[in-house]
Amino acid sequence: MSINHSGSTMGRRGPALVVLCFVQFMLVLDDNVVSVALPSVQKDLGFSTTGLTWVVNAYFLAFGGLLMLFGRLADLVGRRRVFLGGVALFGAASLAGGIAQEPWQLVAARFVQGAGSAMASPASLALIALLFPEAGERAKALGIWGGIAGLGGTTGLVISGALTDLASWRWTFLINIPVAVLAVALLPRLVSESRATHRTRLDVPGSVLGTGAVLALVYGLLQARESGWGGAAVIGPLLLAAVLAAAFLVVEARTAEPLVPLPFLASRTRAVANVTMLLFSAALYAMAFLLMMHLQKVLGYEPLQTGVAYLPYCAGILAGMWLSSRAVIRLGVRRTLVISIPITAAGLVLLSGIAPGDDYASGVLPGMLVTSVANGLSLPVLTVAALTGTTEEDAGLGSALLSSVQQVGGAVGVAVLVTLAALRSDAVSGSADPPHAATEGFSLAMLIAAALIALGAVLVAALLRSPRDSGDAPPLAHGTADQSSAVR
Prior knowledge:
- By secondary structure, the protein is mostly helical.
- Helices cover 79% and strands 0% of the residues.
- The chain has 20 helices and no strands.
- The chain has helices at 7-11, 13-32, 38-45, 49-77, 79-98, 103-131, 135-166, 171-174, 176-190, 204-227, 232-254, 262-265, 268-298, 303-309, 311-331, 333-352, 360-386, 395-428, 434-463, 467-470.
- α4 (49-77) packs antiparallel against α5, α4 runs antiparallel to α10 (204-227) and α16 packs antiparallel against α17.
- The chain starts with 6 loop residues before the first helix and ends in an 18-residue tail after the last helix.
């Protein structure tokens, strides 16, 4: 059974996509599902306030730091194998987290969960790219995949609040186990193994330097979010990340079989898509974080109410995802993004206009809906562009690069925009009550987020070209002849 040519495999693509989508739902869900449960976790296990942050940070540190390594490993040793190993590891870590009795046990479980996600997530995206090589069907599959992932991101707060209130915080971990077991049991029956046809050795020096650079960068950004930008705990890791990244580029330029071939990074289409995704992630991760804080601190919502308030955002994401595949087929990637990205920026501008006295329906909901629909329309299309030219040699690398960009962009956005919002709130706190001051900070951050999205629109309009113009191959070298029309 061949992953790209066998009729039996083609007939199993739908069920395979369902399995891959729901695993991604589980992985994205765990990005934030534990957030609402943190007070209960602290009470039961005796975490200090500083230690409690590592229940969240350990996951993001492992996930962001190991993506590139495991993405390339998937290309070399087999994408299905790495995906199944990641899902199994994630399930085992979820069990360990659910039964943890000491703080260190839960933090360790979260780190291992992040490592499992770093294995499974890029391998999952690479499998979808190879299962659906034609541009139109790939856009549709990525729209479904992204919609389910978006559902996990926006319903995590609801699920976490419900499980914590009705049962125990432990179920925010234990709920992952059935999904992991089913995925490990079903996927080998639906998808055959795929790996790079040109077998190479893993670039160990490049792997160490690249992984170390991303780990140091993510750690520094997480520390900036907790303690500001001026301390040694932030500056030291960021400087180390810069040094390791420079060494990584030198090693990759000189080695015969690099972890990240530099010509892969030179693709104009992929470069524009990944930079735009970086800006998107910075703006929208910060928006989600700050909006959650606004709902709770300014509007006085309880955690479960906050989760429910995000459901319209989820509906908008799904609607945008449904539109995205149709827009790509009719308009192409470039034209779709030129339309959708400015609408995303407009939604953030609407959110920036929230006044302290506005309620949810009048202040939050309009901007939330515009942003969510345009976001859902843009993200699958950016994913298609970011995977343009990937083949069976490097589909895992392309997927891991995209996921790494999203994680780093999100960490940068939250660290910078939350800090700027806090500084603005502090500056006006002497002449305004706390809700007014918090709203001022939120509004400033949303305007900056809108500017980042607008910059992405400028990059796409000015630099994104068709694969033929940019020198890129079609989305998959062995795909259909009309794939190059996906990027116009």
